[in-house]
Amino acid sequence: MAALDMQVIGELRFPGRPEIVSDVRIYVSRWLVIELPEAADDGELVDNVRLLATELAVNAIKHTFSGRWRKGSFRVRMWLGAGRVRVEVMDQGWWSGPRLRADPDGTSGRGLLILATLAANWGVKRRWFGRTVWFELPVQSARFDCAPGNLVEIFDGRNP
């Protein structure tokens, strides 16, 4: 679960089919830019959110029942607040810890390595049926300048 200082800005269930991955990219980009318009000017943030959400969606489809069952699906949820964006992908996979080793000669298997490199924080949590893989990226925005710690400085009893 994300921290209490964050709010959900988007959530959708997607069918576990490879052709749906482009929709995941579109939705996470839209959610971020609609809720935080200045993110449109931060190409790196939007690109990283898209890339990492794509990697997690592909993993859900390729390695879990989300993509193996005819009616398999996975859910993507995005949170925003406290100077960070968090994306969660909830799949129908068995609980297993992440594998961060890729075959040097292989053509796949690097998604979690990319995630570990780009994300400020990430993890895996077990659910009743499946797991949630999540990541967080820092967000620079005036929207978050009034964090509770800053309110003391702003409202210190003096007139503005």
Automatic annotation (TrEMBL):
Keywords from the named record: Kinase, Serine/threonine-protein kinase, Transferase
Domain Histidine kinase/HSP90-like ATPase: 14-134
Pfam annotation, one family: HATPase_c_2
Domain of life: Bacteria
GO molecular function list: protein serine/threonine kinase activity
Protein name: Histidine kinase/HSP90-like ATPase domain-containing protein
Taxonomic path: Bacteria, Bacillati, Actinomycetota, Actinomycetes, Streptosporangiales
PANTHER family: ANTI-SIGMA-F FACTOR RSBW, ANTI-SIGMA-F FACTOR RSBW-RELATED
InterPro entries named among the record's database cross-references: Anti-sigma-factor_SerPK, HATPase_C_sf, HATPase_dom
